[in-house]
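To the wet lab folks,

You asked to see what we're planning to order before we commit. Fair enough. Below is the target structure as tokens, and below that is the sequence we designed to fit it. If anything looks off to you, flag it before the synthesis order goes out.
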């Protein structure tokens, strides 16, 4: 048996979890184990989508402005 872990849910998700546990008569640890087992055994695919040039340039300008000190150190 592994060490205890802490899980923190969003408020809406926490309510749904509590309702599910009551409706199905299982314990929280069992639900977490089943959910994680299912998630990590199924193939996960990440679909890359192209970014619009305008959006990229806007975001890049903000990043350069926000991290100016770090960029200056790289020079």
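Sequence we intend to order:
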């Amino acid at each position: 048996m592994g060490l205890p872990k802490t899980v923190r849910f969003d408020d809406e998700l926490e309510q749904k979890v509590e309702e599910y546990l009551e409706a199905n008569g299982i314990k929280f640890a069992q639900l977490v184990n089943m959910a994680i087992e299912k998630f990590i055994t199924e193939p996960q695919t990440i679909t890359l989508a192209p970014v619009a040039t305008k959006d990229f340039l806007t975001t890049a300008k903000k990043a350069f402005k926000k991290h100016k000190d770090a960029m200056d150190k790289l020079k």
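Structural context that might help your review: The helical segments are 11-24, 28-41, 53-66, 68-74. The chain has a mean pLDDT of 91.

Thanks,
Computational group
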